[in-house]
Amino acid sequence: MVTVYQKPKPATPVITDVLGQSEPLYDVGSIKRIREVNGERSISFSVLNTVENMYAFPLIRSESFVEYKGIDYVVKLYSAKSAGKKSKKTIKALQKFNTDLVDHYVYSFISGSKSLDTCLSFLFVGTEYTYTIIGTFPNQEFDKFGDDNALALIQEALNKFKVEFSIQGTHFTFREKIGNNSDFQFRYKHNIKMLDETINSANFSTYIKGFGKDGLEVEYVSPLDEAEGGPFKRKHAPPIRDEKYTSSTSLLARIKREIPDTIPVAITVDFADMRAAGYPYDVPIEGDNVLLIYEPMGINIETRILRIEEEEDSKGNIIKCAVTLSNIRKNPIHRNANLGNTQKFLDKITDEDGKVRLGFLDAAVQRATADLHSAQTEVEFINGFILRSKVNPNHLVVLNSAGIGVSTDGGQTFRTALTASGIVADLITVGTMLFDRIKGGTLTLGGPENGNGKMIVLNDQGEIIADLDAERGGFSNLYVAHLEAPNVVSYGEENLTFYVADVAIGDGETPNDGNHGTSWNAPLATVNEALRRIPRYYDGVANIYLSHGGTHRGDITVRGFVGRGSIYFRGQSKTQTKIVGNISAGSNLLNLYFEQFTINGRANSYAVVSSYQNAYADFRQINLHGNNSERGFDILQSGYAQVSESDIQSVDACINARYGATCWARDNTGMGAIRGIYAYGGYFVGGGSAPEGGVSNEHKTMGGEIFATFTYPYTPPPAPPPAPETTSTWNSTGTYKGDSWRPQYGGQWFTDGYGEDAVVQGYWGGFGAYKGLWFFGSSPSNAVTGKTIKSMRLYVQRKDQGGNSGAVSCTFRPHTYTGRPGSEPSYQSPSTTASFKWGEGKWITIPSSFYSGFQSGSFKGIGIWVNSTSTSNYAKFYVDAKLEITYE
């Protein structure tokens, strides 16, 4: 092995007063440095007033600056006293970021579900400090985050997101845990002089209650409580009372933070630093996971370094080192929070022109340059060059024919590496990246750790033609050949034909709303799906054919179409094509035609067929059976409709014209329990026969008029259709109407971990394949157990965020839970698929393979899951859903 040493720089503190005068300090006694995980970073020493210090000594006072080994400190504790014929000053200085951030007050605040990046950018803005986030951390709920100094706000963020930080100069790095999983050992008769174990149970508790708003109450019992099989009797902690909590989930998470699941144990080791004895790699670093072996006390555990207290002589050699190991997570910024709080945000990676900010890039370059210039390095040759830091030998660079690797854990892992296979790095900072060399994959801008993404597109003159970010988007000139969006009215003039059936026709496919629906070989399952595929602004002719002999279950809703076009609902036979449900058509400014079917309305309905505010609606050759409903055909609210060659039975009033509407009626038959023709502020025209009424054949009131002369011949009514099946609809219900399980963090529910109510399918951000479920309680199961199910539908709506904005195929499966289970859920074997775009809400038809499980009482609800980690399957839905079942 060839080893080359670079001479270390003298370890001399430099003092600078508040006026900017600087001098080196000599005749310094031993220097004590303290480093804690998320805690104190300080330096303390004494200085004599000698000839060498005649200029530096007067500069030592409160708020002066001390620079030592490249780190800036601010004097916070200062004392002076005589030492024989000389005087001596003793100081304790905290790392500069503490005082900077304590002195920066954030007067505003933010609330709601916020990412770690949002919180940090909010509290750092206006300071010289920048930051990097490594890792993914779920959003957390905040109520008025702010109105405090920045250091206190950092503490709150660290607690909420359960992260730790390191700092280099003015740049923070936040990650789940600092330090490394090292193979370093603290061992009896090797490097331990003395060991002190402290167990503090003074504030130890096993039980706590929390009280929120409107009587919300939760409790938490520690695994150490005897009720949970633990060794301790119940020890109550003071309750948490806070009305800002309205969810039991968030309140439970809050009170759990007050109860440790282990007894706090701290072990202080008087560590014999081995570097001076020729063991350069035995270097403890705060945050490292290490082994502690101390045979006299029977200790053999893996633990973590939380605090290091080193004492150096005037030459910078370690003369004493005490290391604190613990099973407790330190209260973030424990002591420094007493001084105040913190500030500054990296102005954002991009400026107003979308370019990488030179300030940010320069800071990164400056940090790298400072690291290289200050390096104290030894060079080894073992299968290539190893460049190892003499200050911290765990920091090294390997250079050989395979590539270049940078390690912070002594070479166990290389989180930054350049090989023939590519580049690996937690963070890459660049000036300009050549996009001509970039292709494939997915470009992601923004996210929970990085804030709103942004993309700027310039023309050849340097002018902005597109400015897109997560909050807004704009184009100076936009052309889209085909645009679909939930908040944009689509236009079409192409003639369309759709086929709807209840069973497969011949050798064709089973009806499904995912079929193309343009032939009887692959029909749709519902009329409403056919309507959804027709542009809202329509100048063409659309035909929707209902199968002959088919029974089409479910209400039909036609609303909000405009244009010069027409939509035809074509049954194949007045007696053989059946609709079980009601029809509602309203606010349409194109022509509607309904013909040749029997409609078996929902019992005791307000109206079986309702036509309101339509420009033109034509109902012809229809047998209507109301099952004791109030109205058969109800034409109202200034609209116009025609009813002809139809028979109306089992209603109070057969044909109604109300509230300024006009009905043209001709050659209709039937019997109303009270009236045949009823003009309630509306108008009748037409002629021929009309339905009879049990009280009066025709009646007008509220200014209504009957301008036509109708005949009322008795016509024997047709045989009534079979009594309609019962159709019931249930909304998702419970404390959690829906939720999603993800396998990360030992398994957790999306609402608990991310703070968002959503039913999720697919994989995103390394959290595994989500299992989404909607919960309907026990009511659907109780209603249909032992019954015969005729049809099932589910209404859900995809959120306008998450995953691909276009159509994502979702796989729906039954489950057996009335509410959210306590562990990972499972699904039953039947499944069906349907595609959803951002913001799209619709009914999907549930196939008959689901029926038996609901009829037997084992199936309780429906969820979504696909066994794949492809991000192309990722979709988020609202938790509000409707389950409709028709049964007899």
From TrEMBL:
Transmembrane segments: none annotated. Residues 14-93 form the Prophage endopeptidase tail N-terminal domain. Pfam families: Prophage_tail (PF06605), Prophage_tailD1 (PF18994). It comes from the Bacteria. Residues 100-331 form the Tail spike domain. This is Prophage tail endopeptidase domain-containing protein.
